[in-house]
Each structure stands twice: as structure tokens, then as C-alpha cells.
Amino acid sequence: MAADSATTEREDVDEHGQPEVDVHVLWINAGLSCDGDSVALTAATQPTIEEIALGALPGLPRVQFHWPLIDYQVGDEFMDWFWKADRGELEPFVLVVEGSIPNEAIKSEGYWAAFGNDPETGQPITTSEWLDRLAPKALAVLAAGTCATYGGIHAMQGNPTGAMGVPDFLGWNWRSKAGIPIVCVPGCPTHPDNLSETILYLLYQAAGVAPMIPLDESLRPLWLFGQTVHEGCDRAGYYEQGDFTTEYGSPKCLVKIGCWGPVVKCNVPKRGWINGIGGCPNVGGICIACTMPGFPDKFMPFMDAPPGSTVSGAASVTYGKAIRELRNFTFKTVDEEPKWRKRGTKLLTGYKPPW
User: Fold this and answer.
1) How many Å apart are CA 291 and CA 241, to the nearest integer?
2) How many helices and strands in the chain, by DSSP H and E?
3) What CA–CA distances, in Å, run from 104 to 95, 108, 319, 332?
4) CB 10 within 8 A of CB 3
5) What is the reported pLDDT for 319?
6) Within its chain, how far is the Cα of 114 from the centroid?
7) What distance in Å separates the CA atoms of residue 274 and residue 28, rounded to the nearest whole number?
8) Mapping DSSP to helix (H, G, I), strand (E, B) and coil, where does residue 97 land?
9) Contact 150, 293 (CB under 8 A)
């Protein structure tokens, strides 16, 4: 999907005779991570990564991905795009970062994470140095996955690397040269469509056909993370009725066995995982809050009922019992047809002719 490394822009022109410039996506997956977000993105369906890369969507600028997972270029040929961006010869480009950023300043030698070698010294260039070099030149910076957004597992208490998310490293008020804040799409891994949809939005912004991307206070796309798991969960009705499960394999509410859904901002239950199917609570898995900045430290131990769930659950059980009794009464009445629907010689519907 990358062009000949000898050129940075194609020389085609649009219908008005103006030169068309490709938007490059430079993807660094050399932070501390498992590359699960890259793998997840291959499952996206709305849109697919192929639709984005091949320009199959209306109004989309031509895109060149420089992404280790799919690029046919390797070694120096692949890295050449990053050197061009560093020299200011690649315009415009979106920088995608996958994996948490270790603190390279806390030790006297060695490195935690690196991406390619410096041609002048032959030494590895750390991931944090790449961020310092490329972020000021990028049209936008996108942090993909919980590790890149907030630090994730690698940043939990007691870790030896001082790992952090991209906003922690660059600053939460950081803006790109286009005035775009850091865009965070958390998830462990990130939801495939959430990531592909956000990439699509930023590309539309690059083409000048989309307004500033709306983000919440944690830099997440607002239309994707504006509601809680609980608000989109098909088990939420059981919570309201005070009907909780105490074991796996039940369709009832999972709060009592450790689900954090009522306070977690995530759209997975509503959206499903692939083609609207799957998603943690939808298949009986508890929400462990992997899209939240405080993950994992503030949500452990997993499998235990969250704080406050005992009180709220007890209240739900109390009024839920009354609700269930009232609904059972209503079920008996609304689950039957009206009495006038039967054969006979008289009209029983209450209709009165006007003549």
C-alpha cells in the first residue's frame, strides 16, 4: 500500500487540474504493547481498512499506509518514510502510535523500546524520541489502544519502565500544527470499528470535509465513548429489576460478579464486536474497564463486585422486586387480546355510527 520510496507524492491532478497529494499514515507499533490493536483493526467492517486504503469511500483523500502489519516494504525501505517525515519532506501525515511510552530518562544506559536505527550512529532510536521528532510535524496524532492512550497494563503500579500514554508524554493540552488535540481510541484491544472510524474521520478532516473531531475530557471521540457500557447493555433491564447473576453462563446482570459497566465509557455492548455480533457483556464477560484512564489499577481486583455495587444492588433488589410484581401483573393483561376480537353477530369494539 506504500508507493515507490523514491517519491513522497504522486503527480496526478484532480478534475480542476490541481495536483492531488496523498495523506500518509505513519504507524509506530514500537511502544510497549502486544500489537493487538493492529490485529484488531484487520477485523473492522464499518469501514474496513481495505476501504480506507483503496479509497473506496466518497470524499476520502488518497491514503498511503506505512504500517508494519501490512506493508510489503521492509528494513531501510520501510523506515525511509519515517526519515522523510522527520526531515519535513512528507506532507501531510497522520501519526498513529500503538503501545505505551516508557520513560527512557530514568536509567543511565540501554533503552526500553525503539523503532529502527539511526543511519548516522547505527544505534536504535527510542520510541519516545520518535514522538519528539514526528509529533510536531504531524497533521494529527492518534493513540491506538489503551496502552498508547493511557499507559495500560505496562503503566500499572510497580512497573519498572515508568510507562505512560501519549497524552502523558506530549501533554494533555498538546495540539498538532493543525490545531488537533491528541485523539485517543482506548480498548484492550481497541474496538476494530471504533479505530477504523476514527482514522476515517481524521482523513476526512485532512481533506477539509469534516469539522474538528469532537472529543471528551479524556480525548476519546465523543460519539463513540459518550455513553456507558450499562446504557448500551442488553442486560441493563435485569439490573433495573434487581435480578443479578452470581455465576457465569446466565443472561442476567453481571455487576455482582465484577462488571464495571455502569461507570465505564464504552460502546462495545451496543455496537457488538464484529458486524454487530459479540462484545464483552453480550457474550457473558464482565467489563473490566479497559477503555478508562484508570485501567487497570483502579479496577482491580477483577471478578470482584465493584465498590458501590453492594449498596446500589441492594436498592435495586428492593425496588426491583416490586417492579417485577407489577410487571408480572401487566404481562398477564397485555399478553392477551382484547375481548371484542371474536366471532358473533354484535359489534363489541365500542364503535358508534354517526348516523
Assistant:
1) 27
2) 12, 7
3) 21, 9, 54, 67
4) yes
5) 61
6) 24
7) 25
8) strand
9) yes
Q: pLDDT per residue over 60-90, tens digit each?
A: 999 999 999 988 888 999 999 999 999 999 9
Specify whether the CB–CB gap between 305 and 255 falls below 8 A.
Answer: yes
Residue 194 three-state SS: helix
The three-state (H, E, C) secondary structure of 240-296, written as one string: HCCCECCCCCCCCECHHHCCCHHHCECCHHHHCCECCECCCHHHCCCCCCCCCCCCC
β-bridge partners, 64: 24
pLDDT at position 81, please? 96
CB 267 within 8 A of CB 225: yes
Per-residue cell: 325: 410484581
Residues 6+ apart with CB under 8 A from 51: 57
Q: pLDDT, tens digit, for every residue of 257-272?
A: 999 999 999 999 999 9
Q: Which residues of 313-348 are buried (b: 16+ CB within 10 A; e: fewer)?
A: beebeeebeeeeeeeeeeeeeeeeeeeeeeeeeeee
Residue 53 near residue 63 (C-beta atoms within 8 A): yes
pTM: 0.84
Listing DSSP states for 216-249 in one string gives -TTS-BHHHHSSBHHHH-TTHHHHHTT-B-SSTT
Between CA 136 and CA 127 the distance in angstroms is 15
> Which residues, in sequence order, are CB contacts of 328 under 8 Å at separation 6+?
none
Q: Is the pLDDT of residue 12 over 60?
A: no
CA angle 334, 337, 343 (to 5 degrees): 170
Residue 351 has a pLDDT of 86
Those residues with Cβ within 8 angstroms of residue 169's Cβ, 6 or more apart along the chain or in another chain: 101, 128, 131
Whole-angstrom distance, CA of residue 306 vs CA of residue 262 = 10
Q: Given CA atoms 5, 11, 14, 19 in this order, what sign does their dihedral have?
A: positive
SS3 297: helix
Dihedral angle, C-alpha 268, 273, 275, 277, nearest 10 °: -90
Q: How far from the centroid of its chain's Cα atoms is residue 17's Cα?
A: 38
- 66 closest CA partner among 23, 128, 31: 23
What is the rounded CA–CA span in Å between residue 129 and residue 132? 5
